[in-house]
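Worked example

This section walks through a single chain of length 202. The input is the sequence exactly as stored; nothing has been trimmed or padded.
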Amino acid sequence: MYGPPQAPQVPQPSKSPVSGGRIALLVLFSALSLMSCGFLAWAPMLRLAIVTRRTLDWVLFGATFLVAAGLFTYAGVTGDEEATTVESFVAVGVMVLLVAGSISYYLVTEIRNLDRAGAAPAFRPGYDHAAAVTVPSAVANPAPIPNPYARPVVPPPAVPVQQPQPPVAPGPRIDQVRAELDELSDLLRKDTGNTGEGAGDR
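Given that input, the structure is written out below as tokens.
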């Protein structure tokens, strides 16, 4: 408001907070849950709970871990026995729900978290954003406030102005040089006049 005018800012295209590393993590944790048939479905939930630090995510991580451990234990106990059709349908249904639920919740929450991080203004430590609000003043022409960080303005040193010198009358030496030059030019004129007449006689 009181400083020099700033150049108009050109609107920058919004940068997506999703980098290649974050996309790789999304794919890795989703594939980990899917490829392990639900036995590692707790891994994306653990990452989500660590990143967001919300109680709900920690509770969902614990529930997912218990269900995955229960499935692993059930498969270990009944490994050699022939399972009934109902048991097979229940086990497969729980695995599908565990995988689909953990992947979908992980992706939706992680993407929302990334969008929220991209929309928030950048925080700079040591800078009070509340103090940066400009309040219009009722004073028409306020007195300028000195800037304690500005360098003092030092006037340039005064250059002494020299008075123009009147032209100096030529000395006796210059008169002598002029006289000699006049003599030489007369001699040359005479010499060229003689050689011109002699060349016509031949």
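What to look for: Residues 85-119 form the longest helix (35 residues).
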